[in-house]
């Protein structure tokens, strides 16, 4: 399954509240993410507000589009938007910067194992 990594910037003065909001994400939001094709989704936060997200999805664009039409996502994005900088009017789910994967251990081990005699 394809892996995706992205970054956003959380306002440093809102870190504690942002973390608290993610301690108990709404059950209907969790279900919508699952049902829309988001798998193994994690967020990592640095003390200066750098947020790194990791998600696996068969097709991230399709997973994002499936979430975009849910009512719960509209509510969640509206609440989360206040925590971020640099979105230029977009929701957090539309404003993240995808990072290029340049190394994956298992992929290289598999390639190496198939080349060995």
Task: Give the fraction of residues assigned to helices.
Answer: 40-55%
Instruction: Figure out the total of helices.
Output: 6
Instruction: Label the overall shape.
Output: globular
* Biggest pleated sheet: 5 strands, antiparallel
Strand content: 15-25%
Average pLDDT confidence is 94
Organism: Pseudonocardia yunnanensis
InterPro entries: Dimeric_a/b-barrel, Rham/fucose_mutarotase
Pfam families: rhaM (PF05336)
Protein name: L-rhamnose mutarotase
What does the model show?
It is built from six helices and five strands; from the N terminus they run E-H-H-E-E-H-H-E-H-E-H. It has 117 residues and is of the alpha+beta class. Strands 1, 2, 3, 4 and 5 form a five-stranded antiparallel β-sheet that branches. The radius of gyration is 16 Å and the shape is globular. It starts with a strand and ends with a helix. InterPro entries: Dimeric_a/b-barrel, Rham/fucose_mutarotase. This is L-rhamnose mutarotase.
How would you summarize the topology of this molecule?
Layout (H helix, E strand, L loop, with lengths): L2 E8 L4 H7 L5 H9 L3 E7 L4 E7 L3 H9 L2 H10 L3 E2 L6 H4 L1 E3 L5 H11 L2
Antiparallel strand pairs: 1-3, 1-4, 1-5, 2-3
